[in-house]
Write a structure and sequence with these properties.
With about 325 residues, this protein is α/β, with parallel strands linked by helices. It has a single domain, classed as Ribonuclease Z/Hydroxyacylglutathione hydrolase-like (Metallo-beta-lactamase, Chain A, 4-Layer Sandwich). The protein has 9 helices and 15 strands. An 8-stranded mixed beta sheet has the order 6-5-4-3-2-1-14-15. Strands 7-8-9-10-11-12-13 form a 7-stranded mixed beta sheet. Helix 9 links the parallel strand 12 and strand 13. Helix 8 crosses helix 9. The longest helix has 11 residues. The N terminus is likely disordered. The structure holds zinc ion (2 copies). The site of one zinc ion has 7 residues, from loops.
Length: about 325
């Protein structure tokens, strides 16, 4: 019998104490943990990686610019973005980053073009963005407000393997299985100062990911679930679910990779009669007996000698005080 599941989000902060210096810490902020459905609390997938002086974004879903602002960063603080695949919830925030980031204000402030790394097709997106942003660019150039080159997306096409290797930060793309019409699609393994963070992005149960995600400090995986009667009667729900990993699939992935901390993100729990997060965790616990934390937007993960998971403070008065 699997033991009762010791999950999720009933903590303030996990392992606050961290005796390592900040230069040894890999800092990950989950800017967006949602799916295409517009939701104020779960924007499209976007993850900020901070290592030493570097800031890199992996995926750039809806609202990435707003989430950066919420943690006090200008949109222009990032000039390097990796896109996992071309579903809209993973890159629809790109144009906001390109345009707003080019404005020479504290909220923008990028001093060069935006380098965007993606699978085959990234050159078309860069060219399309250059055309789509032309009217705004023309106004701002006429006003002598911006350098037009700062609004440019410079495309870089990547394939499986190391896609970033700079000052100790190594990012590796891992090809995953997100369905036959979404090839290629990638997960990412991020390494810095001996720390390892893995994000599945969108995928079904995948052996290649399992092979390359071994013994991560933190492994964030997507999940999708629907009730059998809904799958049988709602073809659109079935189409969506078939592209993703079930709770039992994810439990098997965690059991076969043994991360120090397992997390769920990108929960595809569609109407009608959506499966609850609690039901997902219960199902997952049939395969994996470790703690699983359900990600929320703006949750920060500091990976040093210890792993700290810090939820975002949404305001209000602490401790239920009135
Ligand atoms: Zn997605
Ligand atoms: Zn997708």
């Amino acid at each position: 019998m699997p033991r009762p599941h010791a999950a999720a989000n009933d903590f303030g902060t996990l392992h606050m104490t961290d005796s390592t210096t900040s230069s040894d810490v890999l800092k990950v902020t989950l800017l967006g943990t949602g799916i295409p459905n517009p939701q104020i609390n779960a924007f499209g997938t976007s993850t900020l990686i901070e290592a030493g002086d570097q800031k890199v974004l992996i995926d750039c879903g809806r609202g990435a610019a707003i989430r950066l602002s919420q943690i006090g960063l200008g949109v222009g603080c990032v000039d390097t973005i990796f896109i996992s695949h071309y579903h809209s919830d993973h890159f629809s925030g790109l144009f906001d980053m390109a345009m707003t980031g080019s404005i020479p204000q504290k909220f923008g402030g990028r001093t060069g073009p935006l380098h965007v790394h993606g699978p085959s097709g990234i050159a078309d997106i860069a060219e399309g963005a250059w055309q789509a942003t032309a009217p705004d660019r023309a106004i701002r150039v006429a006003d002598n407000e911006i350098d037009p080159e700062h609004m440019r997306i410079v495309p870089h096409e990547y394939s499986e393997g190391v896609v970033h290797d700079k000052d100790g930060l190594v990012i590796r793309a891992i090809e995953v299985d997100h369905g036959e019409f979404i090839r290629p699609a990638y997960a990412f393994r991020v390494e810095y100062a001996g720390r390892v963070f893995v994000h599945s992005h969108d995928t079904r149960y995948n052996e290649n990911l399992i092979a390359q995600a071994q013994y991560a400090d933190v492994f964030v995986h997507e999940v999708a679930a629907a009730r059998p009667e809904i799958l049988a009667t709602h073809p659109a729900v079935k189409v969506a679910i078939d592209h993703h990993a079930t709770p039992r699939d994810v439990g098997r992935v965690f059991a076969q990779t043994r991360p120090k901390l397992a997390m769920l993100t990108h929960l595809v729990l569609l109407k009608p009669d959506p499966v609850s997060t609690g039901e997902v965790l219960q199902e997952l616990s049939q395969e994996y007996d470790g703690t699983v934390v359900v990600a929320e937007d703006l949750m920060t993960i500091q990976i040093g000698r210890n792993i700290s998971v810090i939820p975002y403070w949404h305001g209000g008065k602490p401790g239920g005080m009135v």
